[in-house]
Every structure is written in structure tokens, then in C-alpha cells.
Design goal:
alpha/beta, five-stranded mixed sheet, 11 helices
Length: 301
């Protein structure tokens, strides 16, 4: 642009739009009132536009009001980008999208190991259950729960979970430990609302050959993590996925009920736009993720 003014002049304009007088703007900019006035007059001459109505107090003209948010966004974006680059300090940022439950229960506890093996990678976690299209503003890679059918993307199988009931020791002490699946029907069962890729209680009971005319529900939850938390609080028995209760099973805060194999009908996959998987930092993350998934899968058999 031939009429792009100096950055200091743009800054003077941005600051002045947030004040009622040149004096107030000059105090924030640490320059004299006349210097602010001169910079803004120069800006109006460069652009051929009147930006302020001058009087006892300043007010923006329609042209000034139209330009103010654009200039403000420029400085906000510039400052955020500079801060981000300083934080990276030579590291490569990798935006990873996954579901909130997997990020919290499975991926987050493993990230310190990734940092030790690949200190050059700076992971940014973004959580959503929605489909992503890998546009410029979206994550670089994703971990998705599904059937592996991603024809327009590169994908790698990661792991498949087992599905089983879990309860807290306090709940079992209060209600007694069920010795076979039909006994679960006398316990409060923690259930999920809405459609989901993972099995519900009705599917699990059908798998183990138990007829369920009506479940003894306690509370319905909209989130997998909420059912696990409710189980930890002794509010009932949850139908858990193995990757979401590793810590709780290992420390004894939850107990797995029945050693009945029931693999989830869907699995986790690493996905990204084709060609992205070969980028060095993505390849390092992908290889680490596949290796961690293979170790986890052995524990889920």
C-alpha cells in the first residue's frame, strides 16, 4: 500500500480512539499532546479522510469508526503473535484436536513423556466433538473416535477400548458387590443422554445375555467424564471405557466389575490432511502417539 502510514502513527490513532481527549491519549503514549495531534493530522492527510470530530472532546467520524476496529485488531493480532513466537523459543507449535474426555483422561497424562522425548514440539490441545475440516484456523492434526473411514484424510489406527462397569469401593460397601451381571439391575446405574458412538447399558446387557425391561437409573449425564466422576462419588455404577479409567483403576478409586470382554465397536484414529503426516514435527508426534497407543492397547485386551 502506497498510503500505509508508520506504525507509530497507527498506534497513536488506536490509542486516541479509546480516549475523549488528546491529553488522555498522550499520557498513555508517553508523548506530548501536540505530538499526538500532529500524528493524527498527518494520518488524515495520508488517507484523505477526517477521522475525528474535534471539540471539547473527541469523537470518531463514520470513517474513523469504520477504521478503528481494523487498526485495533492489527495491534492485538501482532502482539499475540509476537508473544506466541517468544513463548515457542525455537519450538514448533502443533495444534492437536481431540475429544475433551480423551484429552483429560488419556492424552494429558502422557504429554510429559512427549515433552521429554521431543522438546522441540509445543502441543496446543483443542477439544471438540464436532467434525473439523482442517482449514487455516483449525488444528493441524486430530484424534477421532470412529470407524476409520476418512477417505479424504491420512489416518492411522491407534487403539480400541474395552467397555465394562465400574464402581467405587464405597458404593460396593453400601450396596454389596454384584457377582453376576443380572445383579447390576438392583443398583443405580449412571447413564448417558443422547446419541453416542460408544455403547449404552442396554447394549452391554444384551452382549452379556441379560434381559433389561427397565433400568434402575439415578441421574442421566451429558458427558462421559461426569458419569465417571459420579461413580467416584459413589452415586452409582458407570459403564466405562478402559482408556478413561486407567488412573482410577490403578489407584483403586474405582473397581472393574466382571472380566467380560466387550471391545468398543469404534476405535481411535490419528487423522490429518494428506501430506501433513510427513512433516518432521507431525511425524515425530504421530510415531510417539502410535507407540503409546500400542502399549495402551496391550492393557485393554
Amino acid at each position: 500500500m502506497s498510503n500505509l502510514p508508520p506504525t507509530s502513527t497507527l498506534r497513536a490513532f488506536e490509542v486516541t480512539t479509546r480516549h475523549a481527549t488528546f491529553t488522555a491519549a498522550s499520557e498513555e503514549l508517553h508523548i506530548t499532546q501536540s505530538a499526538v495531534s500532529h500524528q493524527l493530522k498527518n494520518l488524515e492527510e495520508i488517507w484523505g479522510l477526517q477521522l475525528f470530530n474535534r471539540g471539547k472532546s473527541l469523537s470518531l467520524t463514520p470513517a474513523g469508526a469504520a477504521l478503528a476496529p481494523i487498526v485495533r485488531e492489527f495491534f492485538t493480532t501482532l502482539e499475540a503473535t509476537l508473544s506466541d513466537l517468544r513463548e515457542q523459543n525455537g519450538r514448533v507449535r502443533l495444534k492437536v484436536s481431540t475429544t475433551y474426555s480423551l484429552a483429560l483422561k488419556w492424552l494429558l497424562p502422557r504429554l510429559p513423556e512427549l515433552s521429554r522425548k521431543h522438546p522441540e514440539i509445543l502441543v496446543t490441545l483443542e477439544t471438540t466433538d464436532k467434525a473439523i475440516h482442517f482449514s487455516n484456523s483449525e488444528p493441524d492434526v486430530a484424534i477421532r473416535l470412529g470407524n476409520g473411514h476418512y477417505p479424504a484424510l491420512h489416518s492411522d489406527y491407534l487403539f480400541r477400548e474395552q467397555v465394562f462397569p465400574v464402581a467405587s469401593p464405597e458404593h460396593l460397601q453400601r450396596f454389596g458387590t454384584p457377582h453376576d451381571p443380572p445383579e447390576l439391575l438392583r443398583h443405580p446405574l449412571l447413564t448417558r443422554t443422547g446419541a453416542d458412538l460408544v455403547p449404552k447399558w442396554e447394549t452391554w446387557f444384551q452382549h452379556v445375555g441379560v434381559y433389561t425391561p427397565a433400568l434402575k437409573e439415578s441421574i442421566r449425564f451429558a458427558d462421559t467424564n461426569m458419569t465417571i466422576e459420579a461413580a467416584l462419588l459413589g452415586q452409582g455404577i458407570a459403564l466405562a471405557r478402559s482408556g478413561h479409567v486407567e488412573t482410577e483403576l490403578s489407584n483403586g478409586s474405582l473397581v472393574r466389575l466382571f472380566d467380560v470382554p466387550f471391545p468398543s465397536p469404534v476405535a481411535y484414529y490419528f487423522v490429518c490432511p494428506k501430506g501433513v503426516e510427513s512433516q518432521p514435527h507431525v511425524a515425530s508426534f504421530r510415531d510417539w502417539l502410535i507407540a503409546e497407543s500400542a502399549i495402551a492397547q496391550e492393557g485393554y485386551r
